[in-house]
Design brief:
The protein is of the alpha/beta class and 295 residues long. The chain is built from eleven helices and twelve strands. α8 links the parallel β10 and β11. The longest helix is centred in the C-terminal third of the chain and has 19 residues. The radius of gyration is 20 Å and the shape is elongated. The model has no long low-confidence stretch (mean pLDDT 95). This is Glycosyl transferases group 1. Pfam families: Glyco_trans_1_4 (PF13692).
Length: 295
């Protein structure tokens, strides 16, 4: 049996990405459940995957099972089970280096920067499995408020607060501890999105905001393949974010805003779930199928 082992069910991008990946594997025919503490399912996004108790899996998994994981802290205890391991690489940090050097672990990458890291650090060619945005985030023609700015205060709240004090002709709406449905609806009615999580690996909320038709003003993240300054978003160091927001929201910047929205939406369309399914089919042929358990 296959199990995607997660450390919790809180509001973190890696949790949702893990469930999404398990769902796609299930659609591809692989038997898989998600192992969480207490066997609990998250309530902040929709998920239909079977959920089992993480501790029970750690105690009973063996060589006939395959454990998928993304948190490097889980590696030692998962390795001790004797099960086959698949590392779903969602971020690059020296903490993952021992995982990359273990030739018995199959390495999957969600984006190109992660693949380059695996290649550079361990000479490993990761299997590209991609990442996607739920369809609920894609703009559907709902009325937009051009003066409304959405942001997520969980990370980078002080950056957003400086923007609020500096740019007073806009109004701000926090997305905090909300469900995926509420998050998507807020983005789709907002004219702007502030991505303020400094040091984030990929910046999935910014991509979701592009899909929702927002002008994205973002701090830099590690993987910048979707965040292209002046093309799909305004990418700026935290200290300058209020100034850049003031500029791009000004009366004379209408054409620039429209171009950013259009190109951001085009970028986001590359991350649709339907395209993710096709990428997973290629990953199966590239070796993922052989790494999974089919019992």
């Amino acid at each position: 049996m296959n199990y995607y082992v997660l450390p919790g069910i809180g509001i973190h991008g890696g949790i949702k990405v893990g469930f999404q990946f398990a769902q796609l594997l299930s659609e591809a025919g692989a038997p898989i459940a998600v192992a969480t503490p207490g066997g609990l399912a998250p309530s902040w996004f929709r998920c239909g995957q079977p959920v089992v108790d993480r501790q029970n899996i750690l105690a009973n998994a063996g060589p006939s099972d395959t454990l998928v994981f993304s948190l490097p802290h889980d590696y030692p205890m998962l390795k001790a089970t004797g099960a086959r391991l698949i590392f779903h690489c969602q971020g690059t940090d020296p903490l993952i280096d021992p995982v990359l050097h273990d030739r018995d672990v199959t390495i999957l990458s969600c984006w190109e920067q992660a693949a380059r890291y695996a290649r550079t650090v361990a000479g490993r060619e990761a299997i590209d499995v991609g990442i996607s945005i739920p369809d609920i985030f894609f703009y559907d023609g709902a009325a937009k408020d051009p003066c409304l700015v959405a942001f997520m205060p969980r990370r980078g709240a002080t950056i957003a607060e400086r923007a609020m004090k500096h740019v007073r002709h806009l109004r701000y709406v926090p997305i905090d501890n909300d469900t995926e449905e509420v998050c998507a609806a807020t983005m789709k009615r907002s004219g702007f999105f502030l991505a303020t999580a400094v040091g984030e690996w990929f910046g999935l909320p910014a991509l979701e905001a592009m899909a929702a038709g927002c002008v994205v003003v973002s701090v830099p993240v590690v993987a910048m393949e979707h965040l292209r300054d002046g093309d799909t978003a305004c990418v700026v160091e935290p200290a300058r974010l209020p100034t850049v927001l003031d500029d791009i929201s000004g009366e004379g910047a209408g054409l620039r805003r429209a171009a950013l929205r259009d190109r951001g939406a085009a970028m986001a369309s590359r991350y649709r779930t339907a395209l993710h399914r096709r990428k997973l089919e290629s990953a199966m042929r590239a070796g993922l199928k052989d790494a999974l358990s089919w019992n």
